[in-house]
Amino acid sequence: TYTNQYWLLPTEFRNYSYIGFACDRGLSTLAIDWVGVGLSSRPANASDVLYGTNAAVVSQLARHLKATSILPVVKPFKKVIGIGHSGGSVLLNFGAIAEGPKSPFDGLILTGELIIEPGALNPFPTISARDDTPFHWGGLDPDYVTTSNRSVRISNTPDPPSFSPRMLIFYNFTKDVGSVSTFLQAGLNSLTTHYTRHIAKVVGSENQLFCVGTGRCNDITALTAAERVLWPEARSFEVVVAQRSGHDLNLDFFANGPFNTFVDFVEYFTGF
């Protein structure tokens, strides 16, 4: 239920802005909102907000960036790398499953996402958005949902906490909506894909969904082998466990560590 602000936090949170970090290093970076979220159009029926729909839109945008100049002085981009977080990673994964070698992305960086093991997923608590904030979302389809005010505590709860208390204010002020449909489709990212470009996965060691208490993130070699099974044709595949970071890597005190990792992968994938 984040908007694109997850990647571009306001000025006072400059140290947490991946967009700022990447642009300072000469990488053109664009953050977008899903269909139904933030500044994007919101269908009347939440059931119309699906991973397939969003994956098609994102792929169309990537193709446009490669084919057309977005500004008179800017040439079309030769390579485009997709970076997603949590549900955004599932979206890119879904697109890779659907398009395989025809995908317009030259590499994917999937953060906050690993294979969903049966019975292992601990989903964030959700509530119908119109019940949560009637004055703002009272007219929405009840299948548009949002997270409770304590959700960020679930995603980032190492002891001591890895995020500033001010992040709770930011989170609760900027949280948006998702759809029940996408929650139901989350397991689709556990299908084999024939994507042929580069893949990297980055997850925090304190991720309460995938790492803490599971033992999955202790042996990087074993984790990489297990995750790669679904990407048999990828040109390269790597898993990084960011130490001391929680689920929401960009919102942690240690955000610059993952940011450096993202940039390193972008430069490697593009031959920069």
From TrEMBL:
Residue ranges of every copy of the AB hydrolase-1 domain listed in the record: 13-251
Name of the protein: AB hydrolase-1 domain-containing protein
SUPFAM superfamilies per UniProt: alpha/beta-Hydrolases
Tree of life domain: Eukaryota
Pfam families: Abhydrolase_6
Organism of derivation: Mycena albidolilacea
UniProt-listed InterPro entries: AB_hydrolase_1 (IPR000073), AB_hydrolase_fold (IPR029058)
